[in-house]
């Protein structure tokens, strides 16, 4: 079983829609969780950390469910510029484990 | 402020040649990673440096790969006798400590012909 698994998508949504997707992780001792976004042929960029209580950053909301070992990302009022691959990243001790990414395409 | 800087941004080399890739982490960041990403694939861990501790080299795919970090700052990744399967984007990331989010450089796109 992979350490981090994501639905690859693609999620094709119209502008203004809400899109949400999850990521599951296998190591119950994992300590820190992040969402990164990666645009085509670019490096991953930190989108947000994920905290146990859930957190928002503008139109983005991240949730962590330790009991079920999953993380979610919700994007409200999606923009064309939100089109990207979203990487779920889990930190165990010092090792980062990356999901394969969820592709989101926002259409006009 | 300055982010993680990698050089060169692109490198084309002939099979069998050696290449050296450089990473300048964000100033003060003690943790540094090297990853690589092949076209359409996920990120593959290569090596991890944390302060003065011995690096975790468990991700290096063969003994043709080596990396060092001088003075706890700049890191170089060396690939000897390059093969076509080494073609990938090599990404460096740094973090202020081992449990904080990592910031990636722009990567070096290596093409072995």
Description:
Chain A has strands at residues 4-6, 11-14, 19-25, 32-38, 45-50, 55-57, 60-65, 70-75, 84-92, 95-98, 102-107. In chain A, 0% of the residues lie in helices and 56% in strands. Chain B has no helices and ten strands. In chain B, strands 2, 4, 5, 8, 9 and 10 form a six-stranded mixed β-sheet that branches. The model of chain B has no long low-confidence stretch (mean pLDDT 92). The chains are: A mainly beta (108), B mainly beta (113). At the A-B interface, strand 5 and strand 10 of A face strand 5, strand 8 and strand 9 of B.
Q: Regions of chain B with pLDDT < 50 over 5+ consecutive residues?
A: none
Structural class of chain B: mainly beta
User: Could you tell me the strand content of chain A as a percent range?
Assistant: over 45%
Average pLDDT score of chain A:
93
Helix and strand pattern of chain B: EEEEEEEEEE
Helix/strand/pairing class of chain A, anyone? mainly beta
Biggest beta-sheet profile of chain B: 6 strands, mixed
Say what oligomer this is. Answer: heterodimer
**What is the overall silhouette of chain A?**
globular
Spatial extent as radius of gyration of chain B = 13 Å
Radius of gyration of chain A: 13 Å
Major sheet attributes of chain A = 6 strands, mixed
Q: What is the count of DSSP helices of chain A, taking H or I runs of 4+ residues?
A: 0
Extended strand count of chain A: 11
């Amino acid at each position: 079983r992979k350490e981090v698994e994501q639905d690859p998508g693609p999620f094709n949504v119209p502008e203004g829609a809400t899109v949400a997707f999850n990521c599951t992780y296998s190591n119950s001792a994992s300590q820190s969780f992040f969402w990164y976004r990666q645009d085509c042929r670019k490096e991953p960029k930190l989108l947000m950390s994920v905290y146990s209580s859930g957190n928002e950053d503008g139109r983005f909301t991240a949730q962590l469910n330790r009991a079920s070992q999953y993380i979610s990302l919700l994007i409200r009022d999606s923009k064309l510029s939100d089109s990207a691959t979203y990487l779920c990243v889990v930190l165990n001790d010092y090792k980062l484990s990356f999901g394969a990414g969820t592709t989101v395409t926002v259409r006009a | 402020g300055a982010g993680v800087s990698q050089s060169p941004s692109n490198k084309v080399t002939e099979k069998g040649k050696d290449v050296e890739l450089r990473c300048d982490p964000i100033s003060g960041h003690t943790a540094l990673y090297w990853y690589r990403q092949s076209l359409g694939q996920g990120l593959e861990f290569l090596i991890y440096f944390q302060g003065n501790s011995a690096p975790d080299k468990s991700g290096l795919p063969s003994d043709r790969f080596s990396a060092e970090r001088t003075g706890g700052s700049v890191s170089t990744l060396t690939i000897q006798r390059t093969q076509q399967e080494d073609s990938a984007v090599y990404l460096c990331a740094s973090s202020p400590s081992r449990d904080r989010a990592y910031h990636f450089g722009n990567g070096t796109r290596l093409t072995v012909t």
